[in-house]
């Protein structure tokens, strides 16, 4: 059954992504040749959009692009990640030259150095001039290209904010360079690294040694995650690693889960409302996205208030709900609960009644609001 579900899931997301792909051929002054880009725009994308989108740049776009777009389409549908623009760089005929590095210092030279500049000085400016993209940028690579994307981390101001390095075939000195660079980096960087027990032997060994270096780095700017899978081969690794990488990078963007509710919110010593505000401010700070607070997340905070009996938090929660959903009854419901639990039943009754004229939302109905008001009226004889 699980295999059948995954098969239909793959077909669905592949069709969704395929329908939106734009193929662009650009001439590169750096490479002195034409190169092909595959670009996926999010569903509903419009040039008149007021919002911008994060961008994911995929090396080895010939075979990784569809895998990335399928995952981003699926996860964004469930609001676990934001809608993104995905750019795949096809390399099948040029990969060996693109990955060229010096045997002396492991850094890009000649055609490799040109490809490095091609991405930063031609691909990204081209995409940003044509489409609405945000400052948050993710790089994806596999094998040799997973090594290559790390060169951008050696710059004082990295070009990318997040790196997905799947089964990297590192140049000899790169693990040392990277460990030193990440230890000192001053901007927030998401770094995902993956290998497998069934990976190519030297890749597995070097990746694990590199992991040993990274896990002891004491730098709060580095948000690091590592996976060592059991069965995947070097060539099947991307299918296993990409979902995990996206989940880790966009963890704070995801709706409040049962685990987050239990492990974090219920154990707070302070206000769960402030936790909610800080969660969405972090989304804005990290990804440049002003995300509307989900009704699901309001309900999670309200449930925590009920469970801990800290009913005074309903008042600030109601203010935020009214701001986020001004035409819905959510804010009135929370304010009524505040009055009801803090000894002002008449105000609670009137607030429930006034919420009746607003839109239903998140399981709150007009009948429920009236029933709440009538119950107070019956209890107190108003």
Note down, in words, how this protein is organized.
With about 375 residues, the chain is α/β, with parallel strands linked by helices. The protein folds into two domains: about 1-255, Rossmann fold (3-Layer(aba) Sandwich), CATH 3.40.50.1820; about 260-380, Alpha Horseshoe (Serine Threonine Protein Phosphatase 5, Tetratricopeptide repeat), CATH 1.25.40. About 50% of the residues lie in helices and about 15% in strands. The chain has 15 helices and eight strands. It has an eight-stranded mixed sheet with strand order 1-2-4-3-5-6-7-8, sandwiched between helices. Strand 3, helix 2 and strand 4 form a beta-alpha-beta unit. Helix 2 crosses helix 8 and helix 14 runs antiparallel to helix 15. The longest helix has 20 residues, at about 110-130. The N and C termini lie far apart (about 60 Å). The relative contact order is 0.08. The model is unreliable at about 1-10 and about 10-20 (pLDDT under 50).
Give a quick set of tags describing it:
single chain, 382 residues, alpha/beta, Rossmann fold, Serine Threonine Protein Phosphatase 5, Tetratricopeptide repeat, eight-stranded mixed beta sheet, 15 helices, 8 strands, elongated, disordered N terminus
